[in-house]
Specification:
By secondary structure, this protein is α/β, with parallel strands linked by helices. It contains eleven helices and 41 strands. It folds into four domains: 109 residues, no CATH class; 271 residues, Rossmann fold (3-Layer(aba) Sandwich); 84 residues, Sandwich (Immunoglobulin-like), CATH 2.60.40; 142 residues, Leucine-rich repeat, LRR (right-handed beta-alpha superhelix) (Alpha-Beta Horseshoe). The strands form ten sheets. Strands 7-8-6-11-13-14-15 form a seven-stranded parallel sheet, with helices on both faces. The longest helix is centred in the middle third of the chain and has 18 residues. It starts with 34 loop residues before the first helix and ends with a helix.
Length: 666
């Protein structure tokens, strides 16, 4: 019986349309094409325009009548791509070909949406810095002169080259101009986030907001024949396509790495479908906001491999810098990270690349979530053993006697630039390069910044040849007659201007019980070395004690909830006593490199791999918390020492056992 594939009707929203003339394309139909003919075929196929959903794909044993098709390509595996002017002509042609005995199959080309939300934005470029790609590129350029060529295939709406890109966009097939700009945006994103050894091949597979599944399938095959190691696909739909999947499976078996956008529907992909992102061979990428939280429009779920800041991503279109966003932008950011890793070691397998990313990933600005973010610099450092010096950033806060508010001055290494911005709530976005900071402040060396109120200041120092400094959160008070700014309605200390070495928080203020240390309350406090909280304090807010450089000990006997990143970057903190804490959020002790003793009551969240509560704690030797049937006693010299429920001790020395334990419980 003759095989017939039923017609697929799909509704799409077209944001823009083009009107151009059509020319008939004919190819040799007597045999499969040679490489030159394939290249020419794809070049001509890329010139198709009009509604991609008005295209039929006909597979026939012999030549067919082209009817009133306005554009034709034939000869690729005995398949004809027929473009029709309108829906009526297409349906008439479908019925005609479907009745022919020598036609093996006929179907309408499936349309997939490009996952774009790429309205231009004048905001800052956060994606590169949030994934530390900027530092990764500096590390690569510092230590490596002769990098191997890495080819990236971009299957999209085409791409326009520019003088700025030089010889970086070198292959594939395209149609100019790329009026939709989606494909050009993807290419520009990769251009800005990879070194010059990375060459980009663009394959046009659709127009406007749609990508043809069959054209994408053929593009995969062409990209493989061109030697592309990575293929970026910023498109998808809920139905998928068998031929496209088979092409991906075949290419993956040859070592090609596929990266796809997760989609911008705000759906849990554990419950909904999104292809090609959910194919097992594809790395699906979700979108994080500039503040490292899940974008409300990004799809999410267990099928997502990683999340990258795809908000206000810098790209280039026709020689002009623009900014865009969505999972379509997040995907090429991740593609760039993979290319950067392969640039320093092109022999790495996909498994090794995934492991290097997962072992160094960063926790997001969310509570106890599996949505971690890649750290390009840390991944490459782990692979190469090489690293950069970090810029040292310091600050001084003093009282302005005239205003009663704070003055602040900054200092850093010679040649580095300091950027800062003010926030009443403590935004955690990285400000970076001058090109991306038109709405932030660049600090002029030797000057004093005089404030008119209480703020959380966020500051970072950026250098051309060093790793950027850590992002500092500094709470600067206004100087009134009170040591504490206290909300009696919320029973919360909002901030503290006490500058003693040992700070005893009072149990009551103005007759009201103190129950919470507010967000950012002590962040950036340089004086405090010991802080003692009363039993009445039950909660510590997010970033409450972050960036306290001299803090050594915290005693909090009554605390049951501790917010995310509450002690982040307290590098001299050695001991924390919180025996009742049972809800510990993400990154609580991140980069507390001197921490030795942590007496914590948490059972579940603290030991989650994704929680990363002890990320960067290199010297901790005593955990006192219970997890199911055992608790950890020590982590020293790469050995985990833990006690089983029957009180017998066990030492794990095998790297595999350690990795398993880490992934399972930490």
């Amino acid at each position: 019986m003759r095989k017939t594939v039923s017609i697929v009707l799909s509704a799409v929203i077209v944001l823009s349309s083009l009107t151009i003339g059509f020319s008939c394309i004919t190819m040799n139909t007597n045999q499969l094409m040679r490489k030159r003919e394939i290249d020419n075929f794809w070049r001509q196929l890329s010139e198709f325009d009009g509604e991609v959903t008005n295209r039929l794909i006909v597979r026939s044993k012999k030549k067919i009548d082209l009817l009133n098709a306005v554009d034709v390509a034939s000869g690729y595996e005995n398949t004809y791509f027929l473009q029709f002017k309108n829906e009526e002509d297409l349906l008439d042609a479908y019925n005609y070909y479907n009745a022919l005995d020598y036609v093996d199959s006929v179907k309408r080309e499936t349309a997939m949406k490009t996952d774009a939300a790429h309205a231009l934005s004048d905001t800052k470029c956060y994606g590169t810095a949030n994934s530390n790609i900027d530092d990764a590129l500096k590390l690569i350029n510092t230590y490596y002169d002769d990098l191997p060529e890495i080819k990236i295939g971009v299957i999209d709406t085409g791409a326009e080259n520019s003088e700025l890109m030089g010889d970086r966009l070198v292959g594939g097939y395209d149609s100019l101009p790329d009026e939709d700009s989606h494909g050009s945006y993807v290419v520009g994103t990769i251009f800005y986030n990879t070194p010059d050894n990375v060459k980009i091949y663009s394959y046009k597979a659709g127009n406007g907001t749609t990508i043809g599944a069959e054209a994408a399938t053929a593009a995969v095959k062409k990209a493989v024949s061109d030697g592309c190691k990575i293929i970026n696909m910023s498109f998808g739909d809920e139905n998928g396509d068998i031929s496209l999947h088979n092409a991906i499976i075949s290419a993956s078996a040859k070592g090609v790495i596929f990266v796809a956008s997760a989609g911008n529907d705000g759906k849990n992909l554990s419950l909904y479908n999104q292809y090609p992102a959910e194919y097992a061979e594809v790395l699906a990428i979700g979108n994080m906001t500039a503040s490292r939280a899940l974008s409300p429009t990004s799809n999410y779920g267990t099928g997502i491999f990683s999340y990258v800041t795809g908000t206000s991503v810098r790209t280039n279109f026709r020689g002009e810098d623009v900014y865009w966003g969505g999972t379509s932008a997040a995907a090429p950011m991740f593609t760039s990270i993979v290319a950067d890793i392969l640039s320093v070691n092109p022999k790495l397998s996909l498994i090794e690349i995934k492991r290097s990313i997962q072992n160094t990933e960063m926790s997001p600005n969310e509570d106890n979530t599996s949505r971690n973010m890649p750290d390009a610099y840390a991944a490459i450092k782990s692979i190469t053993g090489k690293e950069l010096q970090s810029v040292k950033l310091d600050y001084t806060v003093t009282e302005n006697q005239q205003t009663g508010c704070s003055d602040i001055t900054f200092s850093c290494d010679n040649g580095a630039n300091i950027y800062y911005y003010l926030s009443s709530g403590g935004d955690t976005v990285y400000p970076i390069d001058t090109d991306c900071l038109q709405y932030h402040h660049r600090y002029e060396s030797g000057t004093t910044v005089s404030l008119d109120d209480k703020y959380v200041i966020n500051a970072v120092a950026y250098s051309e040849n060093k790793k950027k400094s850590e992002l500092l959160h500094i709470t600067v008070p206004d100087y009134d007659n009170n040591d504490y700014c206290f909300s009696s309605a919320a029973n919360t200390i909002k901030y503290c201007r006490v500058d003693d070495k040992t700070i005893y928080i009072p149990e009551t203020i103005e007759g009201a019980s103190v129950k919470k240390i507010g967000d950012f309350c002590f962040s950036g406090n340089k004086s405090a070395e010991i802080i003692v909280l009363p039993d009445s304090v039950k909660q510590i807010g997010q970033y409450a004690f972050s960036n306290c450089p001299n803090l050594k000990k915290v005693v909090a006997p009554g605390v049951t909830i501790c917010g995310r990143y509450s002690f982040q970057n307290c590098r001299n903190l050695k001991e924390v006593i919180m025996p009742l804490d049972t809800t510990t959020y993400t990154g609580m002790f991140k980069n507390c490199t001197s921490l030795i003793i942590a007496q914590i009551g948490a059972k579940d969240y603290l030991t989650s791999r994704y929680n990363k509560a002890f990320e960067g704690c290199e010297n901790i030797i005593n955990y006192n918390f219970i997890n199911q049937n055992f608790f950890f006693d020590k982590i020293m010299n790469g050995k985990f020492v833990y006690t089983l429920s029957d009180n017998s001790d066990s030492i794990l020395e095998s790297p595999d056992e350690i990795l398993f334990l880490w992934d399972s419980y930490y």
